[in-house]
Amino acid sequence: MYRWLLCFRYLRTRYIALASIISVTLGVATLIVVNSVMAGFSAEMHDRLHGVAGDIMIECQASGGMPDPDAHLAEIRRICGKDLVGFTASVHVPAMLGIEYNGQLITGHVNLVGLDPKTFDQVSQFGRHLLHPENQEQVSFDLREGGYAPERVQFPPAGWSYRRVKVEYERALAAEQARIDAMRARTDTESTTVSETFESAGPSVNFGPTVNFGSSNTTETDTASGPSVGIGPGSELFADGETATAQKFDPKTEQFPGIILGIATCSVRHRDANNQVQDFYYGLPGDDVRMMFPNAAENTKVVNQKFTVVDLYESGMSEYDGSFAFCRLDQLQEFRGMIDPQSGTRSVTTIQLKMAEGTNLAAVRDTLRRRFPPQQYAYNIQTWRDMQGPLLAAVRLETMILNILLFLIIAVAGFGILATFFMIVVEKTRDIGTLKALGASGKGVMSIFLSYGLLLGFVGSGAGLLGGLLFVSNINEIASVIEKITGQEVFDPTVYYFSEIPTIVHPWTLAWVMAGAVTIAVIASVLPAMRAARMNPVRALRFE
Amino acid sequence: MNDEIILSARGLHKSFHKDRNEVPVLRGLDLEVTPGVVTALVGRSGSGKSTLMHLLASLDQPDRGEIYFGNERIDNASRPRRDFYRNREIGIIFQFYHLLPELSAVENVLAPMMIGQSAWSYFRHRKEARLRAEAMLDRVGLLHRATHRPAEMSGGEMQRAAIARALMTDPRLLLADEPTGNLDTETGLDILKLLTELNQLDGLSILMITHDDSIAAGADVCHRMQDGQLQINPAQPNFQVADNRIPA
Lengths: 544, 248
Known about the structure:
The complex is a heterodimer of chains A (544) and B (248).
Chain A: H1 2-13, H2 15-52, E1 56-60, H3 69-80, E2 84-101, E3 104-115, H4 117-123, H5 133-137, H6 160-191, H7 194-216, H8 220-229, H9 235-246, E4 258-262, E5 267-271, E6 277-281, E7 288-294, E8 302-313, H10 318-321, E9 324-328, H11 329-336, E10 350-355, H12 361-371, E11 379-383, H13 384-387, H14 389-427, H15 429-437, H16 442-473, H17 475-486, H18 507-534, H19 537-542
Parallel strand pairs in A: 3-9, 4-8
Antiparallel strand pairs in A: 1-10, 1-11, 2-3, 2-7, 2-10, 4-9, 5-6, 7-8
Helix pairs in contact in A: 1-16, 2-14, 2-16, 2-18, 7-8, 8-9, 14-18, 16-18
Chain B: E1 7-18, E2 21-33, E3 38-42, H1 49-56, E4 64-69, E5 72-73, H2 79-89, E6 90-93, H3 105-116, H4 119-124, H5 126-139, H6 155-167, E7 173-177, H7 185-202, E8 205-210, H8 213-216, E9 221-226, E10 229-232, H9 240-244
Parallel strand pairs in B: 3-8, 3-9, 6-7, 7-8
Antiparallel strand pairs in B: 1-2, 1-4, 4-5, 9-10
Helix pairs in contact in B: 3-5, 3-6, 5-6, 6-7
């Protein structure tokens, strides 16, 4: 009893010991903040990594894909049993994206994914990352009238309304261009008659390939795409070509097959003069873009296909946002010739599986690998963790190293406690002698100082816990204050796609951080406590 | 062994070492303390009074010789036994009071109770313990100072509190190491009066160490220490005590 009474009294009267425990407090607070931010970060990252990938991916390496996906699915369902809660088949193909902007063709490499809108959402959180609120509910590859990204003030107008205005404008521009060209041609004819014959011969030659190109493809859309490729040749005939195709295809009311672009494939993010983050879009919902990708034939040819952007995909993972484009599975299968002309079965390149919560993904993956051995099937079977293995491992390693370093800080604080306790033991020498004279045992005296260490550990780490939790709950405000003071942005939104710092507080983390800090405080008080216990009472009583 | 003797020492030897020189302090000292009386040990500074006191309180161990508490040899008893002996069977007061500065007077008085019992059993009996501590403080005339810290008390008050603390566990013998050594004459006499009262009214046995002959004069039995040995001094008999002693 006296040990508790005494150590509570010591706690209240020895402020020097509280000073020594401040380092423990700070260490604990830092540990909690770091762990919460890291946990928030990695949860956010898991979420996003997992967002576009199912639990398990079966990818066929062959360009033609796996024939008869239904039979595969039946087999997979037999293997996985009731753990399988969703699946989707898709076609993944590397493609080149071309966006016409300001008369230039802006190109980029993307993975074109043909997906089944009905089932794709079952395995991943695809819809959640789209801009249009209705598309978030149910993905549609038809262009919407407007209302994209309603919560973003800066997002430019998009959709049908934008498309109509744009087509209007382009037509007016083309008509004006044609008028100017016609005027210039007239003046040219007046000056030279030779060039006229040359020019009139030229266009028909140039026009040829466009027509040929169009006829080589079955879809009418490709015919329409022809003219814009041939933008180089005589502009007079270009205008002619445009009007000729426009009879078949009216961009004011019709659209090409829908495509959803990753937001970073068609936009750049930068800072303006006021240091405000600005997004600039080369392509918006309503614009037409060009995709070039290999077909599935043995003698591979490039398919050149126009699509209309119907939405943008923003997951927050720059890796995905900058490299994915999505279109309808059946259309992509058609474009690539993945439909067997005899049986009509459609091939796919990828099957994604969604397993029940808590399923051991690695075990399912291994079972599937045994069923589809790589010697026989050119399949790559991976869990989503396998695909992002190095990244996840890096984050884990980072968290672990930070924890070790911060615990070293607390251990250093432990030495501070040790020194302070030695001082207190020396200061209390006479009291120790008195206690022994009153019949206190060595163990009892030792336990006074151990309890004192324990109590200090609790107080210090408790204060650290409170401080850490306060810090975590106000981390965004604190970050903005730091930004104001230092002028440095803590979380650069051009680098991280976070509007605020994500944090998750795990109760277990709190528990083991507290336990660790208290243990260190107790261990640090063992040596001084032993010294107190062994103190010769006679010498202690005489101590001045 | 005589049952009449409460504490006895036989042939105590104790020496200290300093720079390889052996400094003998006690040289075969014999002592017997009879119950119910005030025994005084007088000696000059450095005569080994305090060393003897520490040996008797089992805070230190003699090089040679034996100490008996009643019939039980205490100097080589086990640690828990000696802790119990100090806690329950004797009470000690010091020249410098040795109160714990963080605790109030009443908490200081309670300290031996807290030390002697487990936290749980103390907790169950805390009300009785508190009442007894207050009774003890009342006994030494310090109840009005119960919640004061030692730093807020005078020397005499501190020594009274220390006496109350020593009496808390109802010991059979009170060891007093220069109880008035740090007090002015008047306060010292007050303390002495209190001790005499305790002896006379409650029959408490007291062994008091002092360098002051005038204080020793108030004792029933007086021993003089010289050269590490005890000299019974018949030249200073005490007459007044025998009359008003309450029979045990």
